[in-house]
Description:
The chain is mainly alpha-helical. 66% of the residues lie in helices and 0% in strands.
Amino acid sequence: MTAPTALDLPPADPLPEETRRYFEICRDKLGMVPNVLLAHAFSIPKLDAFTAMYNDLMLGESRLTKLEREMIAVVVSAENRCFYCLVAHGAAVRQLSGNPELGEMLVMNYRVAPLPPHQRAMLDFAVRMTKASATIEEADRAGLREAGFTDRDVWDIAAVASFFNMTNRMASAVDMRPNPEYHAQAR
């Protein structure tokens, strides 16, 4: 495995059995090991911390659907112009929604997408967090509640947006590149 970053950090050698099994599951389910995982594989504790947080936020219990969480990932990544996440999570939106046009709209300008009001409010909040988190006030959280979100949902929206703000910055800083397979998925 080669490191998918400009930093050229080699993966841990040898990879622990548990990590090899995790990568095999990725290959079975996705047809590849995402480069973001390979980039973290130079440090198994870093890889484990990243995957635990990702799996909890994106796959764990939440009233937000998997699609809605991916929509947040794409919209935050669009604001941050993160090439890796736009390609990888844009593919996820296309796949989960069954609508390639929605995926492209979210990548380019989510405001043109025909979204229900609660999803528009969710994405507006994620963008505000991305652009100016210090300006968020109770009125912003109240707007999400008025759109039908609970306090736990607000937490989940904020947690997903926060995670992708962090990972976008990391991916850009180390020149992380998406797997080529993502470009053609669900089109």
